[in-house]
Sequence to fold (428 residues):
Amino acid sequence: MITVALPKGSLLKDTIRMLQGAGLDFSGFLDSSNRQLQIVESSGRAQGLLVRAQDVPVYVEYGQAQLGIVGYDVLYEKEPNVAQLADLGFGSCRFSVATKKDGPYRSALDLPPHCRVASKFVHSARRYFQSIDLPVEIIPLSGSVELGPITGMSEAIVDLVSTGRTLKENNLMELEVLFESTARLVAHPLSYRLNVDNLSEYVDLIRQQVLVVA
Amino acid sequence: MITVALPKGSLLKDTIRMLQGAGLDFSGFLDSSNRQLQIVESSGRAQGLLVRAQDVPVYVEYGQAQLGIVGYDVLYEKEPNVAQLADLGFGSCRFSVATKKDGPYRSALDLPPHCRVASKFVHSARRYFQSIDLPVEIIPLSGSVELGPITGMSEAIVDLVSTGRTLKENNLMELEVLFESTARLVAHPLSYRLNVDNLSEYVDLIRQQVLVVA
Fold:
């Protein structure tokens, strides 16, 4: 029996739809009365683990799940030791540098050296500013990053932007898009190479789903 | 005008009650229709920032807030550079090592060397196992840590326990209590020492509240 790690939150609905198309039904996780984090699929061929998006690569890396679905942003931040098998196309958002709309900056390179940048994605933010050779101080926040520029704690933020509503409401604007993120299919490298429990069959079925949708 | 960082979540209600007792009314944050993360108190003497509990010490450390209220667990994990001024007495919970109820372990020292321990509090967990001289591998999870022992990914977890309901539901039991956590009043060290905006007056009023409650 294979185990699939599913991400809680915004990617869950599309994840379940895509797995259903591949013959794996985990729609029980969408039931609002459900408190189970671990359910066995009706056919008994697979079990699902419902975990935080950031934890999906952890379960896959440790081989506790053979497959997982997670946003590229999480993979970029954590650089986990997992096999990236497919871009699933949904859950698309931008990973951006943003700052105050009425501020003096029009690109990331305009930011003053050694300024402060708040982010939930400390590692990704640091990598980006290193790549443009701008020394900045990253302030690690775990939520409501937009408060950084509003309170004056930071000049800019690095965050995920989907609709742009939060930025707009807080009078912020995107300076630079670092990359576009979408949901990815990942696998435990060894399980995938050894084709444990016919893993490749599920991978093929999920890949076909991507083509159907596209 | 001073700024106070208030923690979202389980400590918010008691935090607001205690600040009200000290003459600072941030009850607007309890209004379910409120989307503001920053409100100025009716008297105009103070502003409140509503942030994630883990971010409270960040705002205080950077001087963006002169005062903050946060659980001791967060302070123990992050060791931020803030002044700890008072134990506020509420929000008490235990920081514990737990494992499967039907497992072979009856104390933390029974755990096998190099076993895996899942935790949201990586730094605190590491410090604890170093203090008992037991080498373990800490698996960083961001939520639903109880899945660690259930899925077999880890032998034990280190987590906050308040009612014990989650442990019970997942057939886990506490092996060891590392410490008891309660809400603490913290201040920006320099602002406190220089008594910016009569900070010490608010600190005294909040301390009196603790005595009233106790």
Observations:
- Residues 95 and 179 of chain A are 5 Å apart (CA to CA).
